[in-house]
């Protein structure tokens, strides 16, 4: 026991410590239930600042991604992996399902991509990505948020600096919060939050 205030003692959140309240949150099976629990009062709402909060939300809101592959020549899905073909072409892959509510985290690990341009981002759910073209082509530049391996963040502006660069083997993730006002997306490298993020994202997006 680290601190009595973390448990069932006076002076903690509603008389119950943070750890007990987080265990209650773990038992919930839907984001809607978790959201209602958090807004019971301001003290419970403070759980959002706890380091365990995002991990719990991720488990509650776990989804099975499906890669949208336009042509076989782009590559193939193998379990939770996308394997790029040997062709030296752009390959933009969106993920189903589209996200329109809750707080969702998506993580990728690039392998054998050194020397290639690579990025992680989100797109308006209406975007259609043509095989062998980049995510900003065909008018999608303002409908996508792209976090490049160099650290650049591109959306309406090009080349916003400040986020960390990344390489093969690192865990790159994006968390979209569709419950906040305005809605936002935040990026992470090996669980370290990056300073540049985007607010006002569309009401329905895909990674």
How would you describe this protein?
With 207 residues, this protein is α+β, with helices and mostly antiparallel strands. The chain has two domains: 4-60, no CATH class; 66-206, SPRY domain (Jelly Rolls), CATH 2.60.120. It is 14% helix and 26% strand. It has helices spanning 18-26, 31-38, 42-45, 53-60, and strands at residues 66-68, 75-78, 81-84, 94-96, 103-109, 119-124, 144-148, 153-154, 171-177, 184-189, 192-193, 198-199, 205-206. The strands form four sheets. Strands 5, 9, 10, 11 and 12 form a five-stranded antiparallel sheet that branches. Strands 8-7-6-13 form a four-stranded antiparallel sheet, with no helix packed on it. Strand 9 (171-177) and strand 10 (184-189) form a beta hairpin. It is globular, with a radius of gyration of 19 Å. The termini are far apart. InterPro entries: B30.2/SPRY_sf (IPR043136). It comes from Streblomastix strix. This is F-box domain-containing protein.
Structure characteristics:
F-box domain-containing protein, 13 strands, Jelly Rolls, single chain, 2 domains, 26% strand, alpha+beta, B30.2/SPRY_sf, 4 helices, 207 residues
């Amino acid at each position: 026991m680290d601190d009595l205030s973390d448990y069932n003692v006076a002076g903690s959140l509603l008389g119950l410590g943070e750890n007990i309240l987080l265990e209650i949150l773990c038992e919930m099976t839907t984001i809607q239930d978790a959201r209602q629990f958090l807004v019971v009062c301001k003290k419970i709402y403070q759980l959002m600042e706890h380091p365990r909060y995002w991990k719990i939300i991720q488990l509650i809101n776990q989804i099975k991604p499906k890669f949208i592959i336009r042509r076989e020549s782009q590559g193939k899905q193998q379990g939770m992996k996308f394997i790029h073909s040997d062709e030296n072409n752009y390959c933009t892959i969106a993920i189903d399902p589209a996200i329109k509510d809750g707080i969702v985290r998506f993580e990728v690990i690039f392998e054998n991509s050194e020397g290639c341009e690579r990025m992680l981002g989100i797109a308006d759910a209406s975007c259609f990505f043509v095989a062998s073209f980049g995510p900003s082509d065909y008018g999608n530049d303002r409908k996508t948020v792209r976090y490049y391996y160099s650290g650049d963040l591109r959306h309406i502006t090009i080349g916003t600096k400040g986020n960390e660069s990344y390489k093969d083997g690192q865990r790159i993730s994006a968390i979209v919060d569709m419950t906040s006002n305005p809605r936002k997306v935040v990026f992470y490298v090996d669980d370290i939050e990056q300073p540049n993020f985007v607010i006002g994202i569309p009401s329905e997006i895909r990674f």
